Amino acid sequence: MGRMRIAVTGSTGLIGSALVRSLREDGHEVVRFVRRAPAAGDEARWDPARGHVDPEALAGCDAVVGLAGAGIGDHRWTAAYKKEIRDSRVLGTAALARAVAALDEPPRVFVVGSAVGYYGDTGDRVVDEGAPAGTGFLPSVCVEWEAAAAPARKAGIRTAFARTGLVVAGEGGAWGRMFPLFKAGLGGRLGDGRQYWSYISLRDEVAALRHIIDTPSLEGPVNLTAPEPLTNREVTAAMGRVLRRPTLLPVPAVALRIALGELSSDVLGSQRARPKRLLESGFEFRDPGIEDALRAAL
Fold first, then answer.
1. Residue 143 DSSP SS3
2. Short-list 180, 288, 282, 272, CA closest to 232
């Protein structure tokens, strides 16, 4: 694939910043959409709440990647913050989809960030991209988030939904909070530890997003998770081995509910999602196992 021009929203986030760095290292041109006045030559303005995207900055883009969204674990889920979680994803995706659909020369591909939260709590049932949406707040957000891309699909632009699992990274995301606890010897399984976690290393996440951009057959939902989800108990044991720390103290479910509010259902809930479409399209994971992912993050 030759040199591409790629627009990215959410470029300051954990995944977005890593994606931008990876693309630039390979010589691609990146346009970063920001909500403030552009301060650098590679920045362009967008206002997702008002539905405005600078059309000139989108012109000539081969791909557009939408990763913007208010942090799921950053705040307690008040009614106002739940609205922000939803609006930041749905309105931002709708604004981008309308903007790319209106271009004389639209991009080849529109990649929308989504989440395995789409499936809701699946217990120990394995789900792939053919599974229906679950029930509850996060699944409903994911359904609306993906539906907001409809104008791009109707315009004939290949549109893919990157349903991402828990990203294993040293800073940011769920692991950014867990590493310090485990390093201090305070880590333990969450609740009964039987819930499945669909995880992915940050470098596999970035490689998978780039694989979607480069693979014409990938559209619709694509699970971005390691091949074999593990239970929280298995993840906890691996953290203890890699960090050489005891992991004896379980964190009781009730304490998690107090500390995390509604987010606790996401951490205590079980998602056993497999990356069927990534594997079928020939993607090769660098960090297929949890210890690989943890070592890559550290």
1. helix
2. 272
Counted domains in the chain: 1
Classified as helix, coil or strand, 31 is strand
Tokens of 270: 């079980």
Q: Examine residue 141 and state whether it is found in any structural domain, yes or no.
A: yes
* Residue among 172, 165, 162, 247 nearest 208 (CA): 162
The answer to whether residue 190 is domain-embedded is no
User: Which CATH number belongs to the domain containing residue 135 in this structure?
Assistant: 3.40.50.720
SS (H, E, C) 33-46: EECCCCCCCCEEEE
C-beta neighbour count of 209 within 10 angstroms: 27
**What is the domain range of residue 31?**
5-168+200-225+272-287
pLDDT, position 1 = 63
122 located within any domain: yes
Q: Tokens representing 296? A: 């890559």
CA–CA dist 134, 272 (Å, integer): 13
Question: In angstroms, rounded to a whole number, what is the distance separating the alpha carbons of residues 149 and 91?
Answer: 10
Q: Is the pTM of this model over 0.90?
A: yes
- Residue 150: both structure tokens together: 């409809």
Average confidence (pLDDT) per 10 residues, the chain, 298 residues: 92 96 98 94 94 94 96 79 94 97 97 95 95 93 97 98 94 79 80 89 98 98 96 91 83 64 67 97 97 94
**Domain-embedded: residue 246:** no
Instruction: Give the pLDDT score at 262.
Output: 63
Which tokens go with 8?
């990215």
Contacts of 287 (CB under 8 A, 6+ apart): 168, 200, 201, 203, 204, 226, 293, 296
Return the pLDDT at 267. 60
Q: Answer yes or no: are the C-beta atoms of 28 and 65 closer than 8 Å.
A: no
Q: What's the CA gap between 131 and 14, in Å, rounded?
A: 27
Task: Provide DSSP, 164-214.
Answer: E-EEE-SSSHHHHHHHHHHHTT----BTTS-SEE-EEEHHHHHHHHHHHHH
